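Predict the holo structure. Ligand: nicotinamide-adenine-dinucleotide.
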Amino acid sequence: MSKKVLLLPGDGIGPEIVTEAEKILRKVNEQFSLGLTFDQALVGGAAIDATGIPLPEETLEKAKQSDAILLGAVGGPKWDKLEMARRPEKGLLGLRSNLQLFANLRPAILYPQLAAASSLKPEVVSGLDILIVRELTGGIYFGQPRGVRDLENGERQGFNTYVYSESEIRRIGRVAFEAAQQRNGKLCSVDKANVLEVTVLWREIMDELAKEYPDVELSHMYVDNAAMQLVRAPKQFDVLVTGNMFGDILSDEAAMLTGSIGMLPSASLNAEKQGMYEPCHGSAPDIAGQGIANPLATILSAAMMLRYSLQADAAALAIETAVSQVLDQGLRTADIYAEGCERVTTQQMGEAVLAALGA
Ligand code: NAD
């Protein structure tokens, strides 16, 4: 049966980088007989310009009908003055909530060829390959009640509520255990169970789930220690799973270990494994239209899409290997350029990955 991929180029460098990723997807589609079909739609500023809103009904409908979505990026100064509800970013939030994308997967991979780009010593990070699984639609960012209230003594008090139900913990736990099964079989659950009851429950559910995944080795770590271990010895981790707020912070910390934002892919999945895949970076308006953006984060997002939503592991691996080969050849876009390497454009980088995939 054919599988539907929806391409949402978006704004700024979005169209440039999605064009390169699309070429790669079409190539592996042929090479591995994946039976993928492709469609495109408008989102973000591009959709506002054409229809007045960031997430047109047609785009949402196509997104719902697709098996996976590849997004470039949205936003830019042109739309910054619009009221909140009509801003490009609302297009993304609308897709996340309508498709119930509760699991955010953020790998931090440091290709040995780029070890010098990290702010940590090369021997600490070279070859780093970790995956952070962050709960995306619950926890303290969404818990009720929340707000700022007036106290009887005349001062104001701000408050939020950190809540997770068993089912919310279980579904993100399953995504993490299954991801660990597809990788090196190690899962570290991050909590603050020495202080927060909600994460005592989190820990309990993770232990319960571990019995269903005997091939995965589960460990627990407090979030303060995890933050420290990520900069002390990040290669000890394979997969980390954590709640929304801790994941927000740890995934940015892990991303910076690699030093290059143009290399980092991400995925947001729902219970049916339908997913939206996108680079971690934004629309980079400062370099849009110049043909110098790094397309590799988007190309690696396409590889994640093949692995997690389209059950095409071999094709995913082929793309990741091709990216590594291109870096071996010394080809670099401006953002990852180092002396002695060859500076290439967005399109040249895409073509080089295509060539590395072979005939
Ligand atoms: P940004 O990630 O777009 O850019 C930060 C810096 O990194 C810029 O100097 C940019 O040139 C560079 N950069 C980013 N991606 C690159 C790439 N692939 N190759 C080479 N260089 C790259 O972040 P920003 O400047 O804070 O935001 C710009 C716009 O993007 C804003 O409108 C913001 O709201 C939006 N944004 C969108 C998303 C998304 O679509 N998911 C995420 C973050 C920001």
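The domain at 129-257 is CATH 3.40.718.10 (Isopropylmalate Dehydrogenase). The chain has a mean pLDDT of 95.
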